[in-house]
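Sample 1 of the test manifest.
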Amino acid sequence: MMQRRHFLRGLGGVIIALPFLETFAPKGALAAGPPPFAIFMRQANGVVQKTDEPDVFWPKALGKLTKAGLAAESDRAVSVLSDYADKLLVVQGVNFAFPGNGCGHSGGGNQCLTAAKVSDTPSGNESLAMGESIDNRIARELQPAGVEPLTLYAGKMSGYINEVLSYRGPKQLRSAERDPFVAYTKLFGAQNMDAAALERLKAARSSVNDLVRGDMKSLMGRTDLSADDRARLQLHFDSIRDLEVKMACALPDMRLAEMQAIQPTVGSSDNVQTVTKMQMDIIALAVSCGSVRAATLQIGDGNDSTEYTIYGQKQYSYHWISHRIQSDGASGTPIDNGAELHHEIDKIHGNLFKYLLDRLASYTIGSGTLLDSGIAVWTNDLADKYHSYSNIPYILAGGANGFLATGQHIDAGGVTNNKMWNVVGAAVGCKTNGKPMDDFGDPSLDPGFIPAMMV
Amino acid sequence: MKPEQSRRVRRERRPGSRSSFTLIASGLLAVGLALAGGCVGTIGDPPGESSCTSCPTNPDPATPALETTRFPRLSHLQWENSVQDLLYLAQPAGLSASFTGDPLGGIFDNNESSLQVTPGLWADYQTAAEALSVLVTSDATKLAKLIPSDAPADAAGRAKAFVEHFGMRAYRRPLTPAEVTGYLAVFAKGKALVDGPDDFAKGARLALQAFLQSPHFVYRVEASSTAIGAMIPLSGFEIATKLSYMLWNTMPDDALFAAAAAGKLDSAEGVLAQAQRLLADDRARMMVAAFHHQLFQYDHYDDLTKDPTLFPDWTPALGADMKQESEMFVEDVVFAEGGGIKQLLTEPTTFVNADLASIYGLKGSFDSKFVKVDLDPKTRSGILTRIGFLASNATSHEQHSIHRGVFINRRIICAKLPDPPNNVPPLPPASAFKTNRERVEKHTGKGTCGETCHGTLINPAGFAFEHYGAIGQYEDTENGNPVNSADTYPLDGKDVSYNDAIAFDGLIAESDQVHACYAKHWLQYGYGRADQPADAVAIADLAKESRKGAKALILALTQTQAFRSRIPHTETP
């Protein structure tokens, strides 16, 4: 097996380190903050909120959030974020707009970040979103051409439904990287070069790229191509980039060694939380360096089958627990303490989200932190144990430089989730006709914002 | 992509073809999926031969075929194999292991609709091309293998010989003069732009980087454009490429290139001769293994948790053992025995080491080495009575009849099952019933709201395997009560009854539905795409070949008109 880390690459294959910089938990303040960014962490299978079971997820009351108040509500999953009470924006009353098509999980995943319809074909567990996702919109509009949003994953890939979150466009599902070491190497695995060597490399790659572009143009010039083939070649053509020189960032060698060590078991249930935290280190580093403006992190497969260890004991598949039965289907032996276990899993996700906030808050910028520059979102592709599409969890943190009205728990009143992403997209700088973006998602949906989210 | 206009069906019998296998012109006919709403019907029943008496007739007999891509991208497995063969490496380079993954596109990893060159994958290809170019040009022995033996001694002539010879193998067709000129220009820049032992190696290094990133390498380009009648015949080189990637998951060898150059692939007979040769090679065994690995979901054998108080000897390491058992069993059935899906479902031989032998209850002396054994034909038949399938469709402490039934309906029989409804109350507590089956029946069986799917299709298939517990162990009793594995299932349009898994496996193994299902999956994998309504005729014909064994079915896939041609593009650009 060849060791790829010795070869130069970076996001989009373009970054060369000049100079090498340690930015993991930097001691000194960054001179200037990176541009606003958005990070989306997705939990599966809904949360334990009000159904025929009591709500143990949301803060008890709407209104202002305080550290002491949240900490006192220890029976609520969101309580684990009490340290960040003034940075939080907890939003109830947001729904998916469209029905699924034969599989609730797939339909939820399709709509989670897209606010788009679910495909007619394929259907069932193979259904796809009919529009781009918000991370793609942010990257497409605010990142350089050819640089995609960071798309990461933690945990099992079952083969039933794997990635669900990030879409380049209708039915264009983006794959996610679940190996932190690979993800890191692709983003930051560069090495120092002197200026002369760099110029040679640049020229060598350009000569190769020119030839490949010529081949591509020749194929794209044909008149007998289907629309699908045109799109396929265009995506490929747009992916070809010449060498650019940027500042590189890095995590400490010890952390990289841990990532390398976990590679063989990166998908096991036992490692889901560890891998999630590693991916969060990478995301925090990437946004701190301005490498990306949008990132997604999917925890678990489509109907997350992770077997969490709770009370010192490995439990049933999270999906089974979420249905309170020992089955992926509609019937099975009851799991008597299913609601309690599901609540524990909600808290596990809350604590993982807190880890992300800790990482972002560790980068100091002026009198604030990196967290203040962007937005981190903890969401779910389903609402509750019945896997409904109404009252989807949205826990936002950070204010995108004061754009969001943080420190409160609001009820949006039953709006569709395109309005949620309009707010987030506008907060990080997306525009429609020169004005803050307000028309994300399916064109049939009412445009606009959730005003109470905004300052 | 818009459906093309429908075209007339052309069915023909080709003289000399090895069977009465008749073909679609992909395209052409059209019979819809014989899918009823709800839980009856089969997928891909042939017209007039439907085994499913309750299914509706196709409402649109003119359902057209869809144009397939001209640019199917190599799967990561195919890329890895191709690089190894193209560069004559002794071992796989292993670089594809960290390539940007592809989203799922159905059951198999080679569905053309999911395979694209994205920014991440382009960067992966670039990184890999640079690494491989250094690997090969740093070693004079490796580089020499890429240069034709009769190459001229002068630098210019040698470079041209290298570009033409290597280029033909990388592009899987001869380069055009303009392409040769382009690569020679890149070759010439190598001296100044890259490192290497000498000027030739430097030139080759840069040229290799370009070859390995070219669309003509990363896609199996089908450029042919001249229609003859309703179809565009593929060129010999395009057929050679299609054949080798279908049967070997890698590039053509020299003999296949020679056959293409000599025009020997322009007929079905010529294709068949090469297909038979390729199928006799070990690389075909790897392809057959990859197909069954995905179809039977061997990956679900990993990371299984079993109750340590009930099964103290169970370890997750058994996952690898169960995979190896399954791979050896499939290879033995298909290649040593000449069997197909019938034998895969019914053959009671398998391969075990000591750990697996213990679960099967085999007497004798076993160690870590896998040996072929005969299982008790009264308690074990084919792949569905193997530990891998049974344990991966079970809870930590008992069998999971519903999961087993769903898998069999979807993957083996291709019965149409809708997804389960939300908000269904759970099964009653186990303590209220004598057996697992009694409990499941009470909740989902005949006379309940779950009858349509569970009562008629899922439960009967799953209950046949009630004798096999959480780790696939065979048991006669459950909680002191006799196990009941008898039931009735609607097969080929009529209800069939059986007493146990052995009888059930025997019945489905002979059924039209199962052979059509196996054929449909082979069409998906062999052609690297989802099946279309217009494939119904082909699937029906392939199902007949399936009765002769998997190899006959695979060969038949190369004999369709669709294999050797493509549908002209009619969409306005």
